[in-house]
Amino acid sequence: MVGDITSLIGTIGFSSPGAFIALLFLVLAVIGAIVVVVTIHPVLQYYPYMYPNARIRARIGKLFNEKQISEIVEADNLEEVKNYLRGVPEYAAHIEKYNIEKALNTQLAETYDLVARIAPDSIKDTFDILLSQWDVRNLKSIMIAKETGLTDEETMDLVVPFGELNESMDKIMDAKNIPEIINALEGTEYAKVLEDAMPEYQKTGMLLPLEAALDKNFLGKLVESVANPADDNASFLQSYIGTFVDSTNLKMILRAKADGLKFMDVEPYMISNGYQLRDWKLKELMESEDVEGVLSGLEGTDYSRVLAEVVPEYSSTGSVAPFEAALDKNIRKIAKSISQKNSLGVGPIIGFLSRKEIEIRNLKIIVRGKMEKGFSTSMIKEMLI
User: SS3 for 384?
Assistant: First the structure.
């Protein structure tokens, strides 16, 4: 028997049984290594998210639930709303330091700052860019303040103390007009962005070209940061950011068509390299004659279904607001879906930011309802997201 095996081994090219056994062990080792790599790869993909998600889940547990939001809505006046928020650690310090609107914006910015600091390196750039939205918002607020003649104190009430420009804010605040603001921004990306939009601002006398240039720069960087997903987490992030940018483009196109604007009026404000709405599709939509043409052009995309649900409301009111609300709702739906499908990766981060945005928007609705006369508790509840 042993002789037969030895003879068989010799016939397939091995000089001895030892050589055959050595090769057999080598093959088994390679197969084992492959099995280990295949098994451990998913673990390695999600390992960087373990600490961030632990922090995020702790924050999710502190979000207001429906009962708490209902309690805030039932407050008799704005002071009672503020007193309620003083009892919540995440809001307390900001409520004491700032006016209510700035306090809410600051808490939201603080949330984005936390996420940007703890996000895994592979997706950190995207969340750093998301944090820079506060630079954009602050610059818009300052430009509006300078144009309308607000005092420095009134202007500071609009500025949120987050973003890369926060340390340079005193210098920017000292500017007396738009050209001086641009000079104060020298050495930052925003100087060139605003310089390029100055001719249109000077031509129209409106801030819209400057504000749109800031938005386009922000959203363009955001799209670029997710353009080449390296794994499932990055792909989920791309779908979320891509849907947000597509929706922003669609809102602009729908508003433009409702106002009777043409391709050349809309094109400068579009963000290229969308997710479902690539440049050729955006061009087709911008060339539509009216809102109905835009809806027809969206057939074959997910947005057709999203907007179809509110066509009756648009038809009865003539307002594109239902379309905008439907697009926003779709973004929230996608965030929730990602948080459930990708619970070990980027999902909890996306889901948390979406829910925090909802919380802040609802608090702002409540605050405004308490500040203005004529808003009953039931009316405020109907306005909540």
Answer: coil
